[in-house]
Design a protein that fits this description.
By secondary structure, the chain is an alpha+beta fold. 27% of the residues lie in helices and 16% in strands. It contains 21 helices and 23 strands. The longest helix has 22 residues.
């Protein structure tokens, strides 16, 4: 028998980019052997259970690590008081934070799981987050002046910054080679000891204020706790056979396995009269806060109603069974594009347990698969939540449509104890209770599935309601809100973390409030205001709201869906852009549905880019900088980025505008003409394996380019540019000479149809297609050689067919003269 394929190959065989929660068999069993490509003679030292050397701080042992109970289960300590704490209390909180991270990651079954990219390709592999939280302590301590030197410059660069996907197919850099896992573990061990020393012996003192260097210490704690939650989501997105629930991880809520969660919860709308709300955390409140929490805003909230409970799996199952995912009418434009792009038919953490159409499901929790708990809150993204609101509106026909809750409304429905300013720090329950005290309701305000009270969600009616009669205002799952993520009045950027909030004040991020079961520390605080893009999956759900209140909206600095054609374009220019979008990105069935058509002429931008790549490799030309001159809407530029690290695409404004939208969003809507005034709307998408950050687009005078402006390039591609300029020879002269764009030894690839027009250039400027003074015909190759003045040597020439669709029954078919030249 043959040996099983390597694990990386097993991933491809199973469909790496398919949500494993859509396939019960693959989720549970996957490919065998389990997640290790190491041989039996080389055991995987990162399998489960982890060896003692795994724990780089305090091991999760009762009496050794703070927050570990007598049963060996770890939970979260209360959020520290920055005004009257002690160095030891901060060290305890740090140890609790650090070990929580290592307990979570200890559930990964082997080295390969750390390196496995998420199925959706929107985040780094887990090895990044395992090292990233340690790197941030070092980097922020240096910014604050608590440390003078770093620990490992390479590690602190590659693991410094995570990703915020710009759209649903904007990929992170998952093709890079990550450090050996053992190196990251040892790096963490070193960082632990440094942080411990700074806490106990550093030059700082209580109280810790926002502007103090020691603010970097508590910032490190809360940053790590953010990634405790986001990493748990990534683990929840892995196939279940690759993970196991660590013995020290908090128990799931009992209803996960005792059958009690199968009962349906009857929901109802509760009316509120509204009132005045003041947002913002006081700057002297003695706990850590992120910069977006500070500032003020007074709101007058109009009367409204909200659902008594969060929307449950049972309620959302009705939407799924009613065909809600297939009905375009319930979805926003961006939501529908996301649904179609991902081919989604049910929530991402639901696992089908039977044939399609039967609508029987299980639920993926962080480490396991359980029967679908109908009374637990549903985990969905904002697109799905809004679609449910639209569907439920159609069913119930309320006086005003259902929607998501607003930030102002969320503040209204909170418990009276939270609003009582006389309580001081006791207003914030996460400063009062550890996770194992959080849900017991023994004190009246500890009634939330938060701060790791349990390791899963719980039934929406399991705990006591707030004084307003609403359940799970905090904890269980985050609330998706109507509001864009926005700065409060008098917002100030934190000098320690200048890009924590401001890049997301773009009108594209949605506020989430209330925290989830695994939100700890500041995330679980009454002051927390977090945000994600609406297509992002988190431990997040929603409740229905209705009434005249509106969420705070910001100008959209981009899109959360496909970009649309600019209304400022003239009809003729828009026609050109649409034709080129189809030419560069159209699938065969969209461009040429006729079997008898010239299919060999399709995908010209991809074919010319691959010719450039092949000849660069054949002649050993460095795959660094390439100029795509005449890039149009960018199809060839993105293909070149698969091999070249720096691609510059240059063209006129309307083409570059469309190319920029493709770079930013990964997709763009355009119209395909059918006949007359009839058209079909399509969505163009970039290849999901392209790192679009490698590509830059710009406008320029196509005839007057120089290296002083653009720099020199290893390769220059002239893509249908010579026919479009008034002096083709002037354009070519920019390639050679002292200021030539092509480096010596570099390549120039010329692609032209020689379709010269007197409307563009005078005949004496044409490169071929004329006769000289003696009556001799001038060919293109001869004219090119004359322009190069002996500095270029022809390497290859071929005829490459090209097809452009104008309408359903009208095409342009051309044969392009392609020549490859090398600069001497």
């Amino acid at each position: 028998l043959c040996d099983p394929p390597p694990y990386a190959m097993q991933q491809d065989m199973q469909g790496l980019h398919r949500n494993p929660n859509r396939d019960l068999f693959m989720n549970l069993q996957g490919a065998k052997p389990l997640a290790s490509s190491t041989s039996s003679s080389s055991p995987d030292d990162y399998s489960y259970p982890k060896p003692d050397s795994w724990w780089t701080g305090k091991p999760p042992v009762h009496g050794v690590c703070p927050g570990v109970d007598a049963n060996g289960k770890i939970t979260s300590l209360p959020l520290p008081d920055c005004e009257k704490g002690s160095r030891q209390s901060l060290l305890d909180y740090f140890d609790n934070t650090w070990t929580l991270t290592e307990v979570l990651f200890s559930g990964l079954m082997g080295r390969d799981v750390f390196l496995r990219s998420p199925w959706h390709q929107l985040r780094h592999p887990l090895i990044f987050y395992y090292g990233h939280v340690a790197c941030l302590y070092i980097n922020k301590f240096r910014v604050a002046g608590l440390l003078k030197e770093g620990v490992n410059e390479y590690m602190e660069q590659i693991m410094e910054t995570g990703v915020d996907e710009m759209s649903w197919d904007d990929l992170s850099k998952n093709e890079m080679e990550w450090p050996d896992l053992r190196e990251v573990t040892e790096y963490r061990r070193t960082v632990y000891n440094i942080v411990k020393d700074v806490i106990l012996n550093g030059d700082w003192s209580f109280p810790i204020k926002i502007d103090d260097p020691a603010w970097a210490i508590v910032m490190g704690f809360e940053h790590e706790r953010i990634h405790l939650e986001t990493s748990s989501v990534l683990i929840r997105e892995l196939p279940a056979y690759l993970v196991t629930r660590p013995a020290q991880f908090p128990d799931y809520h009992p209803s996960a396995t005792d059958g009690s969660s199968s009962k349906l919860v009857t929901n109802e709308m509760v009316h509120f009269s509204g009132g005045e709300v003041e947002l913002g955390k006081p700057r002297d409140f003695p706990s850590f806060g992120w910069d977006n929490e500070y500032g003020t805003r007074k709101l007058q909230v109009n009367p409204f109603s909200v659902s008594k409970f969060l929307i449950t799996n049972g309620e959302f199952l009705e939407f799924v069974r009613a065909g809600g995912y297939a009905n375009r009418n319930y979805w926003t434009e961006a939501g529908w594009q996301w649904r179609v792009f991902r081919n989604v038919h049910f929530p991402t953490f639901w696992v089908p347990n039977g044939p399609v159409g039967l609508h029987q499901y299980k639920l993926r929790v962080i480490f396991d698969i359980v029967d679908l708990p109908l009374s637990w809150p549903v985990d969905v993204n904002a697109h799905e939540a809004r679609a449910y609101c639209a569907w439920k509106t159609a069913q119930d026909k309320p006086e005003s449509p259902y929607r998501l809750i607003t930030e102002g409304e969320h503040n209204i429905i909170r418990d009276a104890a939270i609003k009582d300013t006389s309580r001081g720090t006791a207003r914030d329950f996460v400063m009062m209770y550890a996770g194992n005290e959080m849900s017991s309701n023994t004190k009246g305000d500890n009634k939330y599935n938060s701060n790791l009270a349990w390791g899963s969600q719980s039934p929406v009616d399991a705990l006591a309601p707030s004084s307003s009669g609403i359940y799970d205002v905090f904890g269980n799952v985050w609330h998706w809100c109507e509001d864009d993520f926005n700065p409060l009045d008098d917002f100030k950027i934190s000098p320690l973390y200048v890009d924590f909030s401001t890049p997301c004040y773009d009108g594209l991020h949605t506020i989430i409030l209330g925290g989830s079961f695994i939100s700890t520390g500041d995330e679980a605080s009454i002051w927390s205001r977090f945000h994600f893009r609406p297509h992002f999956n988190q431990h997040a759900g929603f409740r229905l709201a209705c009434g005249p209140n509106e969420g705070k909206m910001l100008p959209k600095l981009g899109t959360n869906g496909a970009s649309v054609s600019s209304s400022s374009l003239t009809a003729e220019i828009e026609k050109q852009v649409n034709e080129h979008m189809l030419f560069h990105y159209g699938a065969k069935q969209d461009v040429l549905p006729w079997e008898q058509g010239p299919s060999s002429a399709l995908s010209f931008p991809l074919r010319i880019a691959r010719l450039v790549q092949d000849w660069a490799a054949k002649l050993s030309v460095a795959n660094k900088r390439v100029l795509d001159l005449g890039c149009s809407v960018g199809g060839a530029s993105f293909e070149l980025a698969k091999k070249f690290s720096d691609v510059v695409g240059v063209d006129v404004e309307h083409f570059v505008q469309a190319a920029e939208e493709m770079k930013r969003d990964g997709q763009r809507k355009f119209s395909r003409k059918e006949e007359g005034k009839l058209a079909t709307e399509l969505i163009a998408s970039t290849d999901s394996f392209v790192d679009r950050t490698r590509v830059t687009f710009r406008t320029a005078d196509l005839e007057n380019l120089c290296s002083a402006d653009l720099g020199r390039f290893n390769v220059v591609l002239l893509e249908h540019i010579l026919e479009r300029v008034s002096s083709p020879s002037a354009c070519l002269s920019n390639m050679v000479g002292d200021e030539g764009l092509v480096e010596r030894g570099g390549l120039l690839v010329v692609a032209t149809s020689s379709d010269w027009s007197e409307d563009v250039a005078l005949p004496q400027e044409w490169l071929g297609g004329t006769v000289d003074a003696e009556g001799n015909e001038i060919s293109l190759t001869t004219a090119l050689e004359a322009c190069f003045k002996g500095e270029m040597e022809l390497q290859h020439r071929e005829d490459m067919p090209m097809l452009i669709r104008e309408s359903a029954r009208s095409y342009k078919w051309r044969v392009i003269n392609v020549s490859v030249w090398r600069r001497k």
